Amino acid sequence: MIPSTITLAIILACAFGLMLTNRLRPDVIAICVALALGISGVITPNDVFSGFSRSAVITILGIFILTQGLYRTGVTRAIGIYLARVSGGGERRMILLVMLAGATLSLVMNNIAAAAMLLPATVDAVKRAHIAPSKVMIPLAFATALGGMATLFTTSNIVVSATLRDQGFNGYGVLDFAPVGIPIVIAGISFMLLAGRRLLPNTDPARQIAAVAEIKEKLAESYQLRERLNEVRIPRESALLGRTIAQSRIGEKWGLSVLAILRGKRSILAPAASEVIEPNDVLLIVGRNERVQKLEQEGAIVEPEARLDGNLVSAEVSLVEVIPAPRSRAVGQSLRQLHFREKFGASVVALWHGGRSVRTDLADLPLQYGDSLLVHGPNEAIRLLQADPDFLVLRADSAEPAIGRKAWLSAGIMAATLALATTGLLPVAETVVLGAMAMVLTGCLTMDEAYRAVEWRAVFLIAGMLPVSIAMVKTGTADLLGQGLVNALAGYGPLAVGAGLLLLTALLTQVMSGQVTAVVLAPIAISAAQIVGADPRAMAMFVAMGSSLVYITPTAHPVNVFVMGPGGYSASDYPRVGLPLTVLLFIVIMIVVPLVFRL
Questions:
Q1: Backbone angles phi, psi at 283, to 5 degrees
Q2: Is residue 356 part of a domain?
Q3: Number of folded domains in the chain?
Q4: What is the signed CA dihedral for 496, 502, 506, 507, rounded to 10 degrees?
Q5: Residues 6+ apart with CB under 8 A from 305
Q6: I need a labelling partner for 410 at 20 to 30 A (CA). Which of 16, 96, 531, 592 fits?
Q7: Distance in angstroms (rounded) separating the CA atoms of residues 169 and 253
Q8: DSSP class of residue 339?
Q9: What is the rounded CA–CA span in Å between residue 495 and residue 188?
Q10: Closest Cα to residue 149, out of 543, 558, 591?
Q11: Three-state SS for 258?
């Protein structure tokens, strides 16, 4: 029979290989890992699905629901609009305010939720302030990760704390991360203000817009609509005459988008699919020129040149940027599969996808995180998009939000939850679930909304991987790897062992999620601490901090991917600023953790 240690190593090697190749979703891989450990006999049947009952998973569930309560009652919108209102001024001031807001919010909520809350208002604010979005989007993403390093309410921190408790040690309290995390937040924000912003790509500030009306025209330039804008005249002999836009199949057959119909002295912006084409109409169409030329087969006349003369927007019609929201069901589906035009009554005229602007055959292109959609349609359609949980419209409403009774109530529930968790009167998991149920019972959100708020992919990923910790302890793998780490570094002292753990964690986090890294390395850190006679909580803290060093690659954390489209980034932009930041934070961690835990 193959020793359990070898079986575990084979299972983990296969799992990591699949994660690196993206052959399967991480949550699917995690459940397969749990099943493989049980079927192979590495862990008992009772341990296979024990992850779903662990306090770490329950805490994460509660945090998702608490965060949704704040969003549902308008608290988060109020914060975002306030940010847009007060962040006028220069680039440095904008970065400071955005990073302070992102770091503060991520202290009490999931990093993705914090970024999703601030992103629309931030995009709107930077455009109004003549600041390149590329100077602010990465700082926003990095700020949420920095703030997460100062609180228990970060997934990897929760996982490490749960591993300590499972092995008979005291877990971390709500405030235990603050002495380590606050210096990290200060160092990270200072770096971005002084040096990091200079390492980010920049667009010409002179080309940024100065007024609200110009924002929409600037969007057209950013997505290079001028290069694909065509005027098509419909004479009386055209086969398109008398057909509706839908019946003409201009979009379905040729992959083109009709932005407007110029009819005499009148402009019909964002025409409905039911709009009938009349004689001498001029269709303003976006798409490849060779595709547009094919409309001549239908008797249409393609004009030699088309101009973008402000005909795209009005008081009733908007041109806005939209991105897939976190946990969006739209990701992986095409606009045609989503029935986007039929559902919202708006057209996607361009798509920022894979670092370039796509303006033809948009309907069949599967959406990805990091994509930005340029949407043209009536204001009512834009309001429908804003209300849809699968999309984020990158435009902050100018009206001040009304702060009602439930908004204050949800904020009070969150504050009370944090205060109770800090006192330690109840376990953190029970406290967080109590706060989540208070959100439901007080009507701040319904139970159905609570279910939809949970990132089930993250829950299944963590619950499926947590049995790995059990397997590593039971098979002695954690002790074996811990001993190997100690043998290599113990001659230089416990601090060198901690540095090795931190470096290994940071490297693994760049290629797979911090949650998975924490699950695998936390037991090793605890074993190494016991071998060298150090505080297990100190060694585990190195793993917790390393799991949040997600600054070098866009795939290290979903928020990094989330801001790629709005910031117009390429993958190479992240290491340019993220690598020196990681080195700086590595040094800060190596100074602060030994001081706090007396290592």
A1: -90, 130
A2: yes
A3: 1
A4: 40
A5: 231
A6: 96
A7: 65
A8: T
A9: 23
A10: 543
A11: strand
Give domain status of residue 190, yes or no.
Answer: no
As given in the structure block, the two tokens for residue 412 are 């009070």
Residue 356 belongs to domain with CATH number = 3.30.70.1450
Residues 13-50 have pLDDT tens digits of 888 788 777 677 788 888 998 999 999 888 888 888 88
**Residue 192 within a domain:** no
Q: CA-CA distance, 184 to 150, in Å (whole number)?
A: 8
Identify the CA nearest to 505 among candidates 532, 476, 543: 543
| R_g (Cα) of the chain, nearest Å | 26
DSSP assignments along 522-584, one per residue: HHHHHHHHHHHT--HHHHHHHHHHHTT---SSGGGSHHHHHTHHHHT--TTHHHHHHHHHHHH
- pLDDT surpasses 80 at 275: yes
Q: What are phi and psi of 390, to 5 degrees?
A: -85, -10
| Sole residue written with tokens 């801001």 | 563
Dihedral angle sign, alpha carbons of residues 497, 499, 503, 509: positive
49: three-class secondary structure by DSSP:
coil
In tens, the pLDDT along 40-65 reads 888 888 888 888 888 878 888 888 88
Residue 332 belongs to what domain range? 213-402
Residue 173 placed within a domain:
no
Neighbours of 574 (CB within 10 A): 24
Report the C-alpha gap between 180 and 185 in whole angstroms: 9
Closest CA to 382 of 308, 314, 307, 334: 314
Q: 378 φ, ψ to 5°?
A: -60, 155
Place of tokens 């706090």: 596
Hey, which residues does 320 pair with through a beta bridge?
375
The H or E element that residue 427 is part of is none
3-state class of 493 per DSSP? coil
